[in-house]
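Ticket reopened. Same input as before:
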Amino acid sequence: MNEAIRICGCALIFIAAAAVIKETKGEHARLLSAAALVVVFLYASGSVGELISYLRGISEGSSAGKYMGRLLKAGAIAFITDTTADICRCSDESAVAGYVEFAGRAEILLLSLPLIDEMISLSLGLLS
Amino acid sequence: MKEVKKILLFFALLLITICFSVCVSAEEYEFYFDASDKKEVGLFPEEEMSAFVDGVPESVREEAAYMANAASGANPSESADAVRERLSVRYLTGVLISKIEEILLPTAADCSGLLALIIVSSLLTSFFKLKEGSGMQSVCETVIDLTVSAAVVKVSMGVVEVVGAYVGGLCSMMNAMTPVMGAVYLSSGSLSQAAVNSSAMMLYVTATENLCREFFIPAAKAALALTVVSGAFRHINFGGFVSTVKRWVITVLAFGVTVFSFILGIQSSLAKSADTLAAKTVKFAVGSSVPLVGGAISDALSTVSASLSMIKKVTGGAGVALILTILIPALATLALNKLALTVCKCAADILGCERASAVIGDADSVLSVFTAVAVLSAVMFIFAVTLFMNSGLS
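Engineering reply: fixed in the latest deploy. New output:
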């Protein structure tokens, strides 16, 4: 609960500061918003990290466990790419945001190629 | 319309009579003669006997060999103690518990792995649902579908291999029993009506077992493969084809089981015991828990218990124990894996992962077909062993 209160508190402080700075120096407000995103993300990663290590622990030893690593990597890439794209859009750089998302999607598809391969070979094994 | 139905029924009955009729004729039997030792005259074809012995699972052969050695020991009281120990309820319960433990731990691990994947999928899906219009949503959903489908097929593969090996082993034993049984009847010299009935029944159960191995198992495997591919790739939909395959398998299975119930009703080779309250309770439990063929199997339950009683009279508790050692592991594997998939489907429904829930539900329904085939094979095997033992007693 302490973590949640800290995260919410940080976010509110940054938003308040950004609102105040916007009136005088608008471009600094955008930087402050981006910094708020990064700080909240770092704070939240602690709790998310514990959850992920717990889930990895319970899936170890199962035949489905090896897919957990790939799914978590894909999820992390999607999350980071999405956050970066949001920061770019906040700074009125939508072209950069689009390219960042494109790179993220390509990275995730590359990660899922061995998965597609394995699934097709398992299905062919069942059919033969 | 009614007349057409009557005509179709007449031809169906005629077809059944033709297919299941057995030609009976006397013919000269060539005895197996070993030229190197002219004193020995073998009555049974060696190839079929080796095929029969090879069809018995390794663990069962070891157990039977141990009991045979223990029973033929120099010290009679030690031999009796050794055999008694192996036939005790404690030992048999220990063997069954150890076999179930071997299955339970990997199944629980697979279930927890799948649950963890569903939780992560739910977290990712809910994150991207909150951010509508996110560019990463579609690719993330694709990876989630692929991962869950691959995990489900990986978990189901183990079960499919176990069931395939189980049905194949039972089929090999039954295929090997039939010629040996024929040789026993011929060597007895008399070809009675009972022998003809038993031979026909044996042919039917063996044919059903072969049908399970050659048609039902491959068809169910194909349905599972196509189900998983449909679940992984949203734009590919084999749903209609899979439903058709499952419908055909269920239709043929239902027809075979209906004919089986009809034959059980008219044959006299396998005696029926009286219905008691306990038997009716078990019948109800079997009828509701075994998918697809539960009704027919529960009707045949009294015949199954009579068959096991006959096996016990001929071979003692050891025979029944060995048969259960062959049958129970595969059935326990199926039951536990179905339970695991049901739990995972419930979790996916609760967490809002609709695609994952659909894939797991489809895989579960294909496992139901495997369960029906495995239970049917087990019942056919018990009947085949009983008929085989009857041939020796006649």
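Residues 54 and 126 of chain A are 33 Å apart (CA to CA). Chain A has two domains: 1-60, 63-128. Please confirm and we'll close it.
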